[in-house]
Design brief:
509 residues, 41% helix, 14 helices, 8-stranded mixed beta sheet
Length: 509
């Protein structure tokens, strides 16, 4: 636009000079003016030619013509003066507009550099075992990351909404070994992922299994493939030789999480294993709960799994129901770097999931879980040799209805709000006996409360009602404040301790 206006000014100046040149040529070439002829002009060919007039006292006529010529020149100069003023005014206005445009462009560029942290930094050098042919993983510049954290903290101080972190990069870490069926898991992850930039997939492979590596590599730049460099057996005491697989899994988890947080410099991660299939709203679920996890220090994970998520135990219309739980579920869970920095120095050599459930690690913190699971496991083969798979895991219901969690207000999951409503709902439910619940003597829709008072009574009731009866460090699966919530014959049931519950008894494990 500025170039166009400059061209107009130049053209105006050229026209001005040409106009004056033509005027001078016209005046110099104009013949002396005599009396007007019959043709209406002082042109040769009138009744009196120039020579005739001069011969008959043309001195007076010459003076009059000179005066008339001077007046004509003066009028033309006035016109040119006005034209020059207009050109000058337009040039000044265009110059001011050009300066304003430059300042606005500079200001806009400066603001964009401050608030837009999308510019990817080159990834850090990879540690040994990382496939260097992988595509770069986006990281955030330290300055932009700091400003992003400050903005996030400010929003959290005001109100927790799921829309507060639409730009958060949440990578998916797939823990793989020797299952070629990892393809089933990866196919679903890629199918349901809407943004490779916001949800990069990192597959960390242990075991060195060639065929599995070939399957993972077939996805090309749709994911990043890294390989655990240490494949040797781990020295364990003789009675633990049969648990060698659990030791290797713990070692692999530690290495893989260290890659995510320290090599790739991510601030959060969702961990799945190579035998998990995800639901259509898997990514939506974790993106919506990310700000809740960030803002509530009483939470330390978000899980996609419901341990009591069998079809008969969940509300089929409750795909949007979410709960707090004191039991660490795993099987598709989100972890923040701050928690990893706390856990990594004391990471166990084996049985990492049960270690996570110990009070020394949990520190009375909770996780979020869904009513209907966002993952299911199809891997009967594994180090646990099918433990729980045939009895429980194969019957877990996978959610099929997409729930737009990012459009929901999930602040009810914050501890202060949640606990008050939870306690009121549990202990306002009618207390019933097992015989009434199982015998069909109850006619109301529920919910109902069944009360246990000891480890043994909990296990008896749980078995009879069809929920998992094991406890880890005294915490029942899916339990919150000692209460397990589920459906029994279509009615909501709370298997709960007496009112006034305060803490778990680790001796119940």
């Amino acid at each position: 636009m500025v170039r166009k206006k400059g061209s107009l000014i130049l053209c105006g100046a050229v026209l001005f000079i040409a106009w004056n040149a033509l005027l001078l040529l016209y005046l110099w070439g104009r013949p002396p003016i005599g009396r007007l002829g019959e043709g209406g002009g002082a042109e040769p060919g009138g009744k009196e030619e120039w020579g005739v007039a001069r011969g008959k006292g043309g001195g007076a006529n010459l003076a009059g013509e000179v005066i008339r010529l001077a007046e004509e020149v003066e009028n033309q100069l006035e016109v040119q003066k006005n034209l020059l003023k207009q050109i000058e005014n337009h040039r000044a206005a265009w110059a001011r507009q050009k300066d304003v445009g430059k300042r606005e462009t500079a200001d806009t560029k400066e603001v964009q550099e401050k608030i837009v942290p999308q510019s990817p930094e080159p990834p850090l050098p990879l540690k040994s075992g990382v496939d260097h042919t992988q595509r770069p993983v986006d990281t955030v510049a330290p300055e932009a990351e700091q400003e992003h954290h400050q903005a996030t903290e400010l929003k959290q101080d005001l109100v927790v909404t799921t829309a507060s972190s639409p730009e958060a990069v949440i990578p998916i870490l797939v823990i793989a070994c020797d299952r070629v069926t990892v393809k089933r898991s990866l196919d679903r992850l890629i199918q349901y992922r809407s943004s490779p930039e916001l949800n990069p997939i990192i597959v960390s492979q242990d075991c060195g299994h060639v065929e599995t590596a070939r399957v993972i590599g077939s996805y090309g730049n749709q994911l990043t493939h890294i390989k655990q460099p240490e494949l040797s057996d781990i020295r364990v005491r003789p009675e633990h030789r049969k648990f060698q697989g659990y030791y290797k899994i713990a070692r692999h988890y530690r290495w893989a999480l260290d890659q995510v947080f320290h090599t790739f410099s991510h601030s959060s991660v969702v961990i799945v294993e190579d035998d998990l299939e995800v639901a259509p709203d898997f990514f939506e679920y974790f993106r919506a709960l990310y700000p809740i996890l960030r803002s509530d220090p009483s939470l330390w994970c978000v899980s996609a799994w419901n341990d009591n998520g069998r079809d008969a135990l969940v509300d089929p219309s409750g795909s949007g129901l979410l709960y707090r739980t004191d039991f660490f579920p795993g099987l598709g869970w989100m972890l923040l770097k701050e928690i990893w920095d706390e856990l990594e120095p004391k990471w166990p050599s084996a049985f990492w999931d049960d270690w996570m459930r110990q009070p020394e690690q949990r520190k009375e913190r909770s996780c979020i879980r869904p009513e209907i699971s966002r993952t299911i496991t199809f891997g009967r083969k594994g180090v646990s040799l099918g433990q729980f798979f045939d009895q429980y895991l194969r019957y877990i219901k996978l959610n099929t209805e997409f729930v737009p969690f990012t459009k929901h207000d999930l602040s009810y999951l914050l501890k202060e709000k949640y606990d008050e409503k939870f306690v009121r709902e549990i202990y306002s439910a009618p207390l019933v006996k097992m015989e009434d619940l199982q015998g069909g003597g109850l006619t109301g829709p529920g919910p109902y409360r069944v009360q246990y008072s000891s480890r043994d009574s909990f296990k008896v009731f749980a078995r009879n009602l069809g929920v998992m009866d094991d406890l880890k460090s005294g915490v029942p699966r899916t339990g919150y404040r000692g209460t397990v919530s589920f459906l029994y014959k279509g009615r909501r049931v709370f298997l709960a301790p007496p009112e006034g519950w305060t803490q778990y008894d680790v001796s119940w494990s």
